[in-house]
Amino acid sequence: MSAEDETLALEKAESLARGAALKWASGVFCRPDQLKHLGQYRRRETQRNNSIQSRLKSALQSYLEGVDHGVAQLQVAFSEVRHVQQALREVQEIWWEGEGSLTKLQPISQLVMEHVQLSVAIQSLPYIYAVPKQIAETQELLESRHLLEAHVHLRELESLRDDVLYRLQKFRPSLDSTDDQPNTEAADLVQRFFAGVQGLSEDLGRTLSSLATSALEVARSDPSLLVSAIRIIEREEILDVEEFRGPVQQPWKPPGRPKHWREHFFQALEKGVWDRVMEPRLLWENLSAADIAKHLKELQGRVVEELQAMCFVLVPCVPPHYDLPRGVAFMCHQGIARHLRDILSHDLPHPALYHVLDWVTTVYTSEHMMGHPNFSSEIDVSELGPLIPPEMLEEQLNRYTRSIRACLSQWIHKALEVEFSDWLRDQEPDKDQDGFYLTTFQQIVMQMLMENVQLAAALGESLENRVKNAVLYEMQNCLVWLREALVKYGIEHMKDRTYPTYYTQYLLAIINGCCALRYNIRRELLRPLGALKRHASPLFRDIPSRPWLTGSDYVRFICDKIEDFSQYLCKARAPACQYLLAQTERMVAIEYVRALMCSKFVCRSPAERQQLAHRMALDAEELSTALHTVGLEESPLCVSLIHSIQELFALKEPSLLSLEVSGLMTAFPDVRYMG
Asked: How are beta strands 430-431 and 437-438 bridged, if at all?
């Protein structure tokens, strides 16, 4: 702060003080009778000023004394620093003068290092002499299955070996020397001397792996032995972790570390699990579908038995953090997945392939296998994932469909050959209970086709649709082959009018069979229509509604469903196709009108009622286009009915409503039953 600023600050402070004093005096001496106390006030203020001045002088004196003392200390410190600098310069000069003579001390340093090593060796001699005997004792303990005692002896031997190697590494030659050959030779000598210790460690590791492979048998017969093995593994795992957590720059690591015995334990456990589950092995010579089914059934039983034994026998012997049920479930899952890929890599007949697909999609995740109630609380099936990848499953479904088509074609040909031979026999055709001629051909064909469809339906909608398409395709081929057989049958009759003897009767039987075949096909095709009709109401549940009124895509979605369904119906021959299309149109009309009549939707204003009528007109146009697309040129029911109801909502004169309703009931008398 400058002198001018200080002067201004002092003047301001003085002005404030005078103002405060004047305010105080005017308050105290506001009446004449108070002037007699003026002397008393003057004495009190004089005493206060004197006290303040004395305190200020005392504080200033103390501050000045502190400054003097600090300056004196700084002078002393400065003098000491100069002495230290002088001493450091003298030490540096002495170091430079004696640097050349330090190399003469190298032999002494070497002797010191050798002395330390010899001292360590002398101190370790009693323990080193006992190493061969201790190795033999440890081997005997290991062979007699006293695993904990054997591990204690092994740790003592390993600690001694590691201590000797560490000391050799620690007291290596100085950094100025590049010759560490003596240390290397000494380390090699120690390694050779303690070679039996590493062998003991490997033997113990193999013993632990063997116990893990037969863990179930050991847990049943001698659980304490398995618990001892787990305790040893946990101890070694801790030592491995501590070793990994050591200094990053540590130049020496104990030999044989890390051992990874826990990892080896789980690998051996997985091998034991898979050996038990996959026993006996599947032989591919002359393998039939029944053999595949039997093998999968037995595999299912062994997996369930293995998982139950793991949960009830083995889990109490291992720490909870091993999460053994989940781990064993994954072991089984991965092993089964590999085994199934191996099975599917072979050229399986379609019955065997069906058993595999059924086992994968239905049995595996059911309560009879991985979802078994005895271990469902321990194992989450959803975590296991699919047994085979989705793309591989898709490939197998296509493979099964191709095989079914080939077999259907072969079966129909054989059935037709038998049928043709029956036409030529000298025996009247069979008759049904009504006295009509019939043949068994259509019954055999329909039973064959429907059995395959039912089997496919058990494996899911995807395979069912594929097999249905294959059945329709082969049915068309069947009709072509039947026509060719009839032409051949007629040619044989034209050669000799008396042969076959029952030519006319068999023609009637064939006609009756074709009619029955046509009826059965129509009945099977009507089932999807019935399913669509049962699911139609959810499609119309949002008609009418506020979102529908404001322009949603509900009707467009319904039209897309109609077009998708028509693509399925196109596989049927006329007149079944036209009949089903007409039924589709009727179902759409009924459900649309029922949705309108049963809804609780209320128009809030005449404008909203006009908006609803406009929306119905748009719906009628969309449905008309969709029905025209699927092959219904004129729509006598659906579109006309919707237009008629739309006109009711579009009325502006309420007095005409009863007349319009009467006209609607006359044009469409069945509309009263649609609600």
From this structure: antiparallel
Question: Which pair of tokens denotes residue 266?
Answer: 């789980």
Q: Specify the pLDDT at position 537.
A: 52
- Sign, CA torsion 85/90/93/94: negative
**Residue in the structure block whose two tokens are 């009759």:** 493
Residues 6+ away with beta carbon under 8 Å from 407: 350
337: number of Cβ within 10 Å: 17
Tokens standing for 347? 């050229």
For 282: left if phi > 0, alpha if psi spans -120 to 50, otherwise beta; the answer is beta
pLDDT at 571: 44
pLDDT at residue 301, as a whole number = 92
Q: Say if residues 432 and 438 touch (Cβ distance below 8 Å).
A: yes
199-220 per-position pLDDT tens digit: 888 899 999 999 999 998 999 9
How far is residue 18's CA from residue 12's CA, in Å, rounded to a whole number? Answer: 10
How many beta carbons lie within 10 A of that of residue 210, not counting itself?
14
Q: Detail the DSSP E strand segments found in 400-450.
A: 430-431, 437-438
Contact 321, 339 (CB under 8 A): no
Rounded Cα distance between 412 and 417, Å, is: 8
Cα separation, 107 vs 122, in Å, equals 22
Place of tokens 């080939």: 406
Nearest to 381 by CA among 317, 424, 332: 332
From 40-44, 151-155, 423-427, 470-474, the region with the lowest mean pLDDT: 40-44
Sign of CA dihedral 420, 422, 426, 430: negative
User: Is the CB of residue 315 less than 8 Å from the CB of residue 297?
Assistant: no
CA distance 441 to 443: 5
Helix (H, G, I), strand (E, B) or coil at 510: helix
**Euclidean distance between CA atoms 420 and 425, whole angstroms:** 9
Q: Choose among 270, 262, 339: nearest CA to 300.
A: 339
If one counts every other C-beta atom within 10 angstroms of the C-beta of residue 30, the result is 8
User: Rounded to an integer, what distance in angstroms lies between the CA atom of residue 381 and that of residue 362?
Assistant: 13
- The predicted-structure confidence for 241-297, as pLDDT tens digits, reads as follows 876 665 544 556 778 788 889 999 999 999 999 888 887 676 766 778 888 899 999
Q: Tally the C-alpha atoms within 13 A of residue 254's C-alpha that lie toward its C-beta.
A: 22
Q: Give the pair of three-digit tokens for residue 187.
A: 């380390």
pLDDT score of 567 more than 70: no
Tokens 């004089």 belong to: 46
User: What are φ and ψ of residue 431, in 5° steps?
Assistant: -125, 150
Residue owning tokens 């099964």: 400
Q: How far is CA 40 from CA 31, 34, 37, 51, 353, in A?
A: 16, 11, 5, 17, 123
Closest CA to 544 of 607, 605, 615: 615
Q: Give the pLDDT band of residue 332 (cuts 50, 70, 90).
A: very high
| Cα maximum dimension of the chain | 169
3-class secondary structure, 532: helix
Number of Cβ within 10 Å of residue 46's Cβ equals 10
CB 207 within 8 A of CB 265: no
Q: Element (H or E) spanning 232, and its range?
A: helix 223-244
Residue 530's pLDDT is what? 44
- Whether residue 344 contacts residue 403, with contact meaning beta carbons closer than 8 Å, is answered with no
Residue 91: count of CB within 10 angstroms of its CB: 9
177 pLDDT above the threshold of 50: no
Q: DSSP string spanning 171-190?
A: TPPPTT----HHHHHHHHHH
Nearest 10 degrees: Cα torsion 113, 118, 124, 125: 170
